[in-house]
Amino acid sequence: MTSEQSAISVQELLAKNENKKKLLYLKEKLIPKFLFLIASVSFLTTLGIVYVLLFESFHFFKEVSIIEFFTGTVLKPMSQNPQFGILPLLVGTLTATTIALVVAVPVGLLTAIFLSEYASKRARQILKPIIEVLAGIPTIVYGFFAFTFVTPVLQKIFPELEATNILSPGLVMGIMIIPMVASLSEDAMNAVPQSIRDGALGLGSSKIEVTLKVVIPAAFSGIVASIILAFSRAIGETMIVTIASGSSKQLTFDVMKSMQTMTAYIVEVTGGDAPAGSAIYYSLYAVALTLFLFTLIMNIIANRIAKRFYQKY
After folding, report:
1. How many domains does the chain have?
2. Could you read off the pLDDT of 201-221 as tens digits, one per residue?
3. Residues 194, 218: contact at Cβ < 8 Å?
4. What does pLDDT average to over the chain?
């Protein structure tokens, strides 16, 4: 190979390396933009949902006073003189959610304590997936379970229980969100270093004392976050309450009676009885906006609590 040919080969190699560097530089510039675009999808989707809810709710509040909407105790959207008080829906939604939390929180926390502190590794590997299967069951199945099984069983205990009531779907919703409380709480407890447990045991604490006085306080932020996320999940549940709670729009605090939740009302209105452009049609957006605000507030509270009690090890 002559010196001239050698010089050409070196120039070609340098040119190839330069092209590779340019290509690599282009990739490094494009990848962050691509990832930003993907990350923006959820934000833009949320922005679109908020825009639609606000825009359509604006039409509703032009016809109905916002004060009447949030303080009214009568909901008669189909009458000749329609009234749109949301309090019956708020009471129904919060009643069902409270019943669900009464079931899910103690059961979920005790399950998390067992899996984290007492179960063997083999038992944990078997039990945790079984518990999480509950989260994968379609909610419509839960709805029919509440209506065809739980309600008849409860009627044998409480004869005054109506065929559609808020108690049965509340209990079944509690069963549905147990995996959320149990799994997230167990993850929070497992994040507590074993050295802290060993230190407490070395000072003479019993196993239950370590669990209640060391592990749970250390994992408190994660436990509270799991409960609030479960609350948000329950408050937005649709099919269970649509099937089993009935459509009564009367303001009542009796769990034996039929109540309607905000999600069930939205399903009812979207069923086709409300003509587009009417007040009742736009009311579903106002109710959906209220539901969205509830969920948003609960998520903000969860983040605040998580940051407030977060412990770094």
Report:
1. 2
2. 888 888 888 888 888 888 888
3. no
4. 84
